[in-house]
């Protein structure tokens, strides 16, 4: 399973909208790098839901639940079905992410305008720690 971060403006489509709807098709991505990431996603992968613009925070976790489909007339863009997994214990803000040395290489910071980006395993676990969620497969001794 791979991990991702997917951005949405909460005034257009928010975490609460996804929870209310139960699922949605993640569409409308029109950036070549983000399109490559969408094409790399597989059913079962999980993604942080990031509120961009006003909130600038990771607020939830969603799962890719089906294969990619064409998005648009020419078939060069793709969309994916997603569903909510759970909200974070608390939002993890962009300021917190920027201030955490363990997240310094996160694609969210390196390519801040990208709407879909990969998240490394250690980054995933760290964000969950910051949010107060127990990361899966975390070895606690």
Count of strand segments: 7
Largest pleated sheet: 7 strands, mixed
| Low-confidence spans | none
Q: Provide the gyration radius in Å.
A: 14 Å
Structural class: alpha+beta
Specify the overall morphology: globular
Overall tally of domains = 1
CATH class: Alpha Beta
- H/E series: EHEHEEEEHHEH
Chain-averaged pLDDT: 93
CATH fold topology: ph1033 like fold
Please identify which CATH superfamily we are dealing with: ph1033 like domains
Distance from N terminus to C terminus (CA atoms, Å) equals: 25 Å
Number of helices: 5
Proportion of beta-strand residues: 25-35%
Helix content: 25-40%
Protein name: EVE domain-containing protein
Domain EVE: 2-130
Pfam families: EVE (PF01878)
InterPro entries: 5hmC_binding (IPR052181), EVE_domain (IPR002740), PUA-like_sf (IPR015947), THYN1-like_EVE (IPR047197)
Characterization of this structure:
This protein is an alpha+beta fold. It has a single domain (3-131), classed as ph1033 like fold. Helices cover 26% and strands 32% of the residues. It is built from five helices and seven strands, in the order βαβαββββααβα. It has helices spanning 15-21, 32-40, 94-99, 107-110, 121-131, and strands at residues 3-8, 24-26, 46-51, 57-64, 69-70, 78-93, 116-119. Strands 1, 2, 3, 4, 5, 6 and 7 form a seven-stranded mixed β-sheet that branches. Strand 5 (69-70) and strand 6 (78-93) form a beta hairpin. The protein is globular and about 40 Å long. The two termini are 25 Å apart. Pfam families: EVE. It comes from Sphingomonas edaphi.
